[in-house]
UniProtKB/TrEMBL annotation:
It comes from the Archaea. This is Uncharacterized protein. It holds the Pfam family DUF8057. Residues 91-111 are annotated as: Disordered. It comes from Halapricum desulfuricans.
């Protein structure tokens, strides 16, 4: 299944491609196919622990969605589940309307937050006269 959809002869992967592949491997794992070597290779390709954890989440999401789809399907055919989850129609979305869920996006809870971003403060503000002293 996985080899039909993805080429296993790759040298480097971007995070989005790695997430897509990990999701597909999770679906395959739920359907009884083992691609653990490929999965470990994909995880090892990620530079940061954050990217590795995102790829691991994509794998788990693929497993969970495949279990649910197989349970809900009338015949539970693994080819139908694979086609629905992995080989589904590619949807293009405007940058302003990016979905917060699905195979190629992080869950909304994992979106980057601005709380840790440093504000652009003028270094002279620390030594300037406080506003309440102005008349």
């Amino acid at each position: 299944m996985y080899e039909r959809t993805y080429d296993t002869d790759w040298d480097a992967l971007e995070r989005d491609e790695a997430m897509s592949r990990a999701f597909a491997i999770g679906v395959a794992a739920s359907l009884g196919h083992d691609y653990s070597d490929e999965y470990e290779r994909i995880v090892a390709e990620m530079d940061t622990s954050y990217d590795r954890s995102i790829v691991e989440l994509a794998f788990e999401e693929g497993k969970n969605k495949a279990k649910k789809a197989r349970h809900e399907a009338d015949n539970g055919d693994e080819d139908d589940v694979w086609s629905e989850l992995v080989e589904g129609e590619t949807v293009t979305v405007d940058r302003d309307e990016v979905p917060t869920g699905g195979q190629n996006r992080l869950p909304a809870a994992l979106d980057k937050t601005e709380i840790l971003d440093r504000s652009d403060i003028d270094s002279r503000d620390r030594v300037s006269k406080p506003d309440f002293l102005d008349k």
